[in-house]
Design goal:
alpha/beta, Aspartate Aminotransferase, domain 1, Aspartate Aminotransferase, domain 2, 2 domains, five-stranded mixed sheet, about 40% helix
Length: about 400
């Protein structure tokens, strides 16, 4: 190529958007790198409506005066969870930071050693506690912490709150023990300090009916008496990236009044997607209408039929050296949710006599839209549990153009 052709190619590439649509064939339902939760049709419609012009973000329609953006979600969240009040910030780490800074600044935060988690991007809970202006008091051991450990620590500490962090991105098995939430609630009442329950993934429905282990729901935490419960909006809830706080009205109001709340607030697009998703929970059919839950609950027969259809259509292309077959595999929830639990699935395995599995993966990623799969034993796999039926045409289009 001439220097002019090379320069032209570089300029053309630089003018393209880098944040684009992707097809998720990895089998990881809540894929952090691929944007976590896919939004429901209702959420997408709501985002488009407020993005296309002005919106009622912070205005009271009856009076025409300034309002609060929190009002769009408070009633929905209290109706769904049974909490007294609610608010939303930009992610769950921000929700935890705000709660600790509001309720325990210059005081001690008592937490089990086994719950001092690190989330993605090397963000560690002890660092968040320190940034919030509180002092960390670790109790118990990594695998066993009893209520007596909390009681003993409280005698020597200046507790501002008790923090429970659900380990949603890892699992301790074997010789382990944790104090129950109702025990911690009872102790917090005796100490006259609040208890904050960080649930992380934020399940609003019981997932055991779909063959998964029990994941604590927000409603269970509220009913147990936690003063504030924090959780993510874009994980098991299936909405936009957000950190949600629900709980006692007095504590939520204190968090709303904290100057940090403005720095951590969400924008109109986030609120639109979250509000629409919460309406689905309150009035609709979340398991069918929210993509994260639909993928988890999707019958294996349906997944297998889609895999067979895709394999058949790719083989019908008669692309030189390319073959497709259906294989058994397992999907996972991902996004730091339900660690160690797999969901039976089916994938289309692609083999090329011309391209290696790594080359196949690269060719699919470079397509428009980008297609992401995974490589297992030198075979390129596309897991159908995370591929929407209307995305098959794009996959077939990429296969048709191979090996180019």
């Amino acid at each position: 190529d001439s220097i002019f052709e090379a320069a032209s190619r570089i300029l053309a590439e630089s003018s393209k958007l880098s944040h684009t649509k992707a097809i998720n064939g990895t089998g990881i339902i809540i894929h952090t790198g691929l944007g976590r939760a896919a939004l429901s049709k209702a959420a997408r419609k709501a985002v488009e409506a407020v993005a296309s012009g002005h919106s009622t973000l912070e205005i009271d329609k009856p009076s025409g005066k300034r309002g609060s953006r929190q009002e769009h979600i408070v009633q929905l969240l209290t109706d769904i969870t049974g909490a007294e009040s609610a608010m939303v910030v930009n992610n769950n780490a921000a929700a935890v930071l705000l709660a600790i800074n509001t309720l325990a600044q210059n005081s001690d935060v008592i937490i089990s050693r086994g719950q001092l988690v690190e989330i993605g991007g090397s963000f560690r809970l002890p660092d968040i506690i320190a940034r919030a202006g509180a002092r960390l008091v670790e109790v118990g051991t990594t695998n066993r912490t009893r209520i007596s450990d909390y009681e003993c620590a409280a005698k020597c500490a200046e507790p501002g709150l008790i923090l429970r962090c659900h380990p949603s991105n890892f699992k301790i098995t074997g010789f382990s023990e944790e104090a129950a939430l109702d025990e911690l609630v009872k102790l917090s009442r005796e100490l006259s300090v609040p208890i904050v329950d960080d649930l992380g993934s934020g399940a609003l429905i019981n997932l055991e009916q779909y063959g998964l282990d029990h994941e604590p729901t927000v409603q269970e935490s509220v009913q147990s008496g936690a003063d504030i419960v924090t959780f993510s909006g874009d994980k098991l809830l299936g909405a936009s990236q957000a950190g949600i706080l629900v709980g006692k009205a007095d504590y939520i109001q204190q968090c709303m009044s904290n100057p940090l709340a403005r720095a951590l607030r969400v924008d109109k697009l986030t609120l639109a997607a979250l509000e629409a998703t919460l309406h689905v929970y309150r009035e609709g059919d979340p398991v069918n209408d929210i993509p994260v839950l639909a993928a988890i609950a999707r019958p294996l027969d349906d997944v297998a039929a889609q895999a067979a259809k895709l394999a058949r259509r790719i083989n019908a292309l008669r692309v030189e050296g390319l073959s497709a077959m259906v294989v058994q595999t397992t999907s996972e929830t991902g996004g730091g949710s339900l660690p160690g639990q797999n969901i039976e699935s089916r994938a289309v395995a692609l083999k090329s006599q011309i391209l290696s599995a790594e080359d196949l993966g690269r060719r699919f990623r470079e397509w428009d839209p980008s297609i992401f799969g995974r490589i297992t034993k030198d075979t390129y796999l596309l897991d159908m549990r995370t591929v929407h039926p209307n995305e098959l045409g794009d996959i077939i289009g990429r296969a048709r153009s191979l090996p180019g």
